[in-house]
Amino acid sequence: MYRRLITIAIGNFAANVSISVIEVEDFLRVRVKFFASARDIVGTREEVLDIQDSARVIDLLTLLAKKHGEKLKEYLFDTKTGNPRSYLQFLVNDRPITGDFSTPLMNDCVLMIFPPAGGG
Fold first, then answer.
1. What is the pLDDT of residues 51-102, one digit of tens each?
2. E strand or H helix at 65, and its extent?
3. What is the C-alpha to C-alpha distance for residues 29 and 42, in angstroms, rounded to an integer?
4. Residue 60: which H helix or E strand, with range?
5. Whole-model pTM?
6. What is d(CA 44, CA 9) in angstroms, rounded to the nearest whole number?
7. Comparing C-alpha atoms, which of 87, 48, 92 is closest to residue 67?
8. Architecture of the domain spanning 27-114
């Protein structure tokens, strides 16, 4: 977990400067890897995000959809139920997320989004 201090300087720089901490924010740094169609939609293979320290997988998916627009939202989420699409594969630190998108994220974790896999 990382801690970010948001500060504000009050006073005159020629005189003494008083600095007050107005907010302390804890956050997690996560890496997201995109494959196939998700990579094409987002335009990159990977990105690093700082998110709220209590974030869950569903929170991260929602953030990604908001950040990257309607096309990614439609790719990730079923438009009727609002749930993540069941045919996509989501892995956190190489472990599959199987229906429980309330799984908490950890600092420096990696979320991978895979398209459906076909066999033959």
1. 998 999 999 999 999 999 999 999 999 999 999 999 999 999 999 998 889 9
2. helix 57-68
3. 19
4. helix 57-68
5. 0.79
6. 37
7. 48
8. Roll (3.10)
